């Protein structure tokens, strides 16, 4: 039986693909620090663009927003401008949260559970972790003593991706520790958000599935 996917579903598949590369793949296959930073910059630029395309139907904002983020990211990368990099990081975090809120609303408004709602739910969680990694990286750029690592220093964005997701899952191996008050506050926020999201999204999806099943029986 042929499964026909909507345009929204294909957008979410593409977003999941880039999210997966950013979170898992790059850190496995790129070891040189300069190449690693360049690879993360390329993929997160694609995530900015794909995230906007995914929620385009729910927003009146123009394509200028992700394009501006991409330009800022690449300018700060090539020109090595710390202040611009910090501004870009906090702006990107806000952008991701806007996208996440729009996707959550879309899932909540859906009448039934299909592959689209499943993909959107997964992408929301992955984007939340990516937003956390960008935010934690920006905090570290502002204050190098905001975090302490067992290795003595942070090698790349991969460390902040790792820290963001183990914080959201409340796994906490203790190899990276938030030290500054601001870093601790955001760490608490992300650990609570990660658990609340999983509880909320499971309740929403199960409720919609049961409701749809009852109506068709």
Total strands: the figure is: 2
- What's the arrangement of strands in the largest beta sheet? 1-2
Low-confidence stretches: none
**Total individual domains:** 1
- The number of distinct helices, counting runs of at least 4 residues, comes to 7
Order of helices and strands: HHHHHEHEH
* CA-CA gap between termini: 23 Å
User: Class by helix and strand content?
Assistant: mainly alpha
Cα radius of gyration in angstroms: 18 Å
Largest sheet: 2 strands, antiparallel
Tell me what portion of residues adopts beta-strand conformation.
Answer: under 5%
Mean pLDDT: 85
**Gross geometry:** globular
What share of residues is helical? over 70%
Provide an overview of this structure.
By secondary structure, the chain is mainly α. It has one domain. Helices cover 76% and strands 3% of the residues. Strands 1-2 form a two-stranded antiparallel sheet. The longest helix has 35 residues.
């Amino acid at each position: 039986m042929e499964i026909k996917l909507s345009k929204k579903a294909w957008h979410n598949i593409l977003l999941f693909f880039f999210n997966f590369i950013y979170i898992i793949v790059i850190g496995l296959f790129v070891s040189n620090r300069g190449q690693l930073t360049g690879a993360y910059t390329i993929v997160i630029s694609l995530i900015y663009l794909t995230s906007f395309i995914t929620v385009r139907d729910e927003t009146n904002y123009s394509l200028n927003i992700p394009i501006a983020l991409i330009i800022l990211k690449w300018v700060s990368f090539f020109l090595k401008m710390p202040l611009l990099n910090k501004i870009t990081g906090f702006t990107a975090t806000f952008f991701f949260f806007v996208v996440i809120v729009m996707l959550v609303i879309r899932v909540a408004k859906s009448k039934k559970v299909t592959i689209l709602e499943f993909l959107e739910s997964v992408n929301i969680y992955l984007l939340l972790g990516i937003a956390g990694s960008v935010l934690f990286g920006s905090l570290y750029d502002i204050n190098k003593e905001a975090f302490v690592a067992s290795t003595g220093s942070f090698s790349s964005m991969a460390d902040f991706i790792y820290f963001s997701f183990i914080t959201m899952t409340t796994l906490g191996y203790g190899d990276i520790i938030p030290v500054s008050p601001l870093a601790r506050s955001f760490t608490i926020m992300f650990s609570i958000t990660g658990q609340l999201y999983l509880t909320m999204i499971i309740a929403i999806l199960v409720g919609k599935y049961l409701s749809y099943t009852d109506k068709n029986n």
